[in-house]
Amino acid sequence: MSTNTAPNGTTPGPVATTAERRRVVFATVIGTTVEWYDFFIYAFAAGLVFAQAFFAPLGSNSILLSFATVGVSFLFRPFGAFIAGHLGDKYGRKLVLMVTLVMMGLATSLIGILPTYETIGVAAPIILVLLRIVQGISAGGEWGGAVLMAVEHAPSNKRGLFGAGPQTGVPLGLLLASGVMAVMAMIAPGDAFLAWGWRVPFLLSVVLIVVGHYVRRKVEESPVFAELSERREEAQMPILRLFRKHTVLVVVAALVFAGNNAVGYMTTGGYIQNYSTNPDGPLALDRGPVLWAVTGSAVTWLLSTIVAGWVSDRIGRRTTYLLGWVLQLAGVFALFPLVNTGNIGLLFSALALLTVGLGFTYGPQAAFYAELFPASIRFSGVSISYAIGAIAGGAFAPMIATALVSATGTTTSVTWYLAGMTLVGLLATLVLRDRSGIPLGPDHEDEQQVSPVRGLAKV
C-alpha cells in the first residue's frame, strides 16, 4: 500500500498498487467461489437427495420441505449482514472475510458427515437446518466484504471490471458444485449416490477452505477503510445511521437484487435439477447429463458476468442493468418451453440463454452497490441490501415454483412468476440514478450522502 501526496503537502490516504489490486481480486474470487460452492451443493443436494435422506417420513411433502430448508438460510442472511456490516464498518473488511469463510466451511463439512433420518431420527433434519442457518449467516456477511475489497481497491474507471471479480464467485461456485456433483453421479450412480456419493462434495470443502483462508490472509485491508481508520472516523453505530438516513435506498437496492436472485435460483437453488430428474415428474431425465448441462451454463454465466462488469465501466451501471433485464426476460420466457422438450441439448440452451441475462444483472452489482452508499456505512449498506434482496428474491423461489406447478399443473405459472420478479428489478433500477465513478473515499461523504433515489434530496 502506497500513499499519494496532495499539492498542499497533505496525504489523502493509502492507494493500492497494481500488484495489490491483482492480489485482492484473486483473493476475493477464490474466497467467494469457495463460499458459493459450499452454499450451492446444499441446494443441489436439497433437490436430489435430502428429501429422501432427511425428510422421507413426510412422503409427498418431503421435497417441499427440503426446498424450504434452502430458503430458511436466507432468513438469517440479514442477521449475518447486520453483524458483518457493524464489524466491517468498525474493524475492517478483511476480518469479516476471514471469519465468514471459516464459518461456511465448517458448516458444510459437518453436513457431509451428518447421519440421516434413518439413523438418528428427527435429530437429523433438525441438525441439518441448524447447519444451514450457519451457512446463511456466513453468506449474509461474506458478499459485502468481498465486493468492497475489490471495488475500493479499484481505479475509478475500472470498478465494474474489478467488482465483477467476486461476482464470478457465483457462476464459479455453481460450476464447481455442479461439476463435482456430476462426477460423483458417475462414480457412485443410483443408490450409491443416495447412500454416500452426495457426501463427498461436502467433505471436499475442508480442502477448499484451507486454500481460501491462505489466499485471503495475504491481502491488504481496503484503502477506503484504512483511511477511515487513520482518521479515526469509523462509524460508531453504522446500522442505526444507515436506517435513519437511507431506509428507502436500502429497500430499492434490495429490489434490484431480488429481480436477479429469484431467476438465478432456478438453477442455483436446485429447482431445474429436481424438476428435470424427478422420476415421478414429466421429464425423468438422467441425473448426470442434467448436472453437466447446469455446469455448462455456469460457464456462460461466468463469461457474461465479466463482460457486464467491463461494459458497465463504459456505458454506466444503470444502462448495463437495463440491458440485462431485457436479456433476462427473454431467457425467462424461453426457459421452460425448451426444458420441457426433454432434450438435454435444448435444456442446456435454455440455461445458457438465461445466464446471459443473469450475468448482465449481476456483473455490475458490486460497483453499483458500492457507489450507492457513503464510505462510513458502506459495508452495512451493501450487505443489508443484498441480504434483504436475497430473501425477497431467491429465498423461497424453488419452493414457490414447486408449489405453483403443483397447484396449476403447468410451468407457465412459474414463467410468469419469474417474469414478474424481473420486472420488479427493472422498475427498481429505473428509480436509481447512475453514480458510476463517484469518489468512494471519506473526503467525499457530502457528495455520497446525496440520495441516488430519484425524488429524494440530500439526507
From TrEMBL:
SUPFAM superfamilies assigned: MFS general substrate transporter (SSF103473)
Membrane topology of this protein: Multi-pass membrane protein
Any one GO cellular component localisation term in the record: plasma membrane
Compartments it resides in: Cell membrane
Domain Major facilitator superfamily (MFS) profile span(s) in chain numbering: 24-437
Transmembrane segments: 39-57, 63-83, 95-114, 126-151, 172-190, 196-215, 247-272, 292-312, 319-338, 344-363, 384-408, 414-432
Record GO terms (molecular function): transmembrane transporter activity
Origin: domain of life: Bacteria
PROSITE patterns tied to this protein: MFS (PS50850), SUGAR_TRANSPORT_1 (PS00216)
Name of this protein: Sugar phosphate permease
